[in-house]
């Protein structure tokens, strides 16, 4: 079984790697489509990283401050 054992182990290794790449690509594509859909729903909001937001030329609505924060962590 010597040579076949190595071939089987390498086949399993590359098969699992291929499966991981395939499933990861599907999950990433789904996530990307979800982000695009959610960003499109909020496209009318002014997003800036300036200290002062540009003043709107039309005064049809009062300005509102919206603040968001995120904390990301990873322990290995």
Describe the structure.
The protein is mainly α and 76 residues long. 53% of the residues lie in helices and 0% in strands. It has one helix at 2-41. The chain is elongated.
Task: Give the SSE layout.
Elements: H1 2-41
Offer a quick outline of the entry.
This protein has 76 residues and is an all-alpha fold. It is built from 1 helix and no strands. It is elongated, with a radius of gyration of 24 Å.
**CA radius of gyration:** 24 Å
Looking at the structure, what is the overall shape?
elongated
Query: DSSP helix count?
Result: 1
End-to-end separation: 38 Å
- Main β-sheet description: none
> Strand percentage, roughly?
under 5%
* Number of strand elements: 0
Low-confidence stretches: none
Return the average pLDDT rounded to an integer: 83
Helix content: 40-55%
Question: Structural class of the helices, strands and pairings?
Answer: mainly alpha
Order of helices and strands: H
Structure characteristics:
76 residues, mainly alpha, 1 helix, elongated
